[in-house]
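If you are new to this repository, start here. Below is one unmodified record pulled from the training split, so you can see the exact layout before writing a loader.
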Amino acid sequence: MPVKRVVPLVLLVLVVAACGSTAQRRQARAAPAKPACPAAWRAGWQKLANRVQAPVYCPRWMPLPLDAHIGGPYTDINEVSKDRSYLISFVWFEPGSGEVHVNFRGYPGVVRIPTCSDLDTNKPVPCFSDLKGTVHAGGITARVYTANQGVDQWHVLYAWRRGHTLYALSEHVAPPYTYKGILYNLKRMLRGLVLVTPAA
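And here is the target side for that same chain:
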C-alpha cells in the first residue's frame, strides 16, 4: 500500500519540475534585453572608461543631427585631465541654422561641484550654479543647473552622483531647439544612459 502512494507522488514531483523548467525557459526568452551602449559607439566609451579607470555613461540617443561616436565627425572635445576628470563634447554648427552642442563630464573620486574662474572677475566660482530643481529618469536623479561656466556656458546642465563620482550632461540652449526642446532632449538622454565599466 505505501509503495502505491509513493510512485504517484514521484510522478507528480517530476511533472511539476518539468513544468517549472518550461516556465523558466519561457520567462528567459520573454525577458527584455538589457540596455547597451550602441555598437557603433561602444568602443569609444569603453576606451574612455579604461582610460579614466572609472565607469562612464554612454548615451543610447542623441539629439539630431549628433551621434555619440567618440572620434567621429561630431566630436568637438575628447579630453582627460591628470586627475582623470573628462570632458567629451559633440557639436554641430551651421551658420544661419543653429547649433547643437552636448557635453558629457565625469569627475572620478570627486563628488563636489568643481570650481571655475569667472570670465569677468577672474574670481573662483562654482562651475555649475543656479539650481532649478531635480529631474528623475533612467534610475538617475539629477540636479538641474542653468548658470554654468566654461564650455557649459549657456547650457542647461544635469549633474548627479554615483558612488564617489560626479557626472554631468549638458546641452547648449540654441536654435534649432527651443528651451523646452532642450529639456526634452536632456531628459531623453538621461533616460537612455548606459553605464560602461573599465575592462578588467
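Two things worth knowing about this chain: Helices lie at 2-30, 39-52, 179-191. The chain has three helices and eleven strands.
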